[in-house]
Amino acid sequence: MKPHHHQPGSHRARRSGFTLTETLITATIVSSALLTVIGLFSTGLNIGRDSTQTTAASLLARRIAEEAALAITTAPIDVPLTGTGTYTSSLTPIESDPGATSNPTQAAYIANWQTNDDSGNPDSPLAPGVQLLVVTVESPASVPAANRKIYRYATLVQKSQAPPPP
């Protein structure tokens, strides 16, 4: 029997390419990296959406507070005031958008505001004629109340001592 001799370099030529194990390990690493990147995109989108909702809720609360403060300054001194409204995503009241009343999913925000008149309470930290105005904005309006994010905006309003204009 003749001994079998390998020619130099012939073993290397036969072993070109990757093994199945190497391919599976590479596929696992690449898929894990891709899933991580996809998860980061999803998180970034959620943060962006939350930021947009927070900004819109803040703008709506501030606008309502300004309107309510104007109503408070012209109301009689001892009358606490309250209000409520439902608003679209463009921050317009549902009542002023005729198409939105037929589609309840148009409502993006629910806003409530109320004042606290402690003028008759001697232990009140508020100065006489000053009321605490609290605006609460809930979003999104289309989900059950337990699942909504709640934003609160509070400010002090000086009530006018002069009678309201005729």
Automatic annotation (TrEMBL):
Domain of life where this protein originates: Bacteria
Statement: the UniProt record of this protein carries the keyword Membrane: yes
Keywords noted in UniProt: Membrane, Transmembrane, Transmembrane helix
Membrane-spanning segments: 20-41
Protein name per Swiss-Prot or TrEMBL: Prepilin-type N-terminal cleavage/methylation domain-containing protein
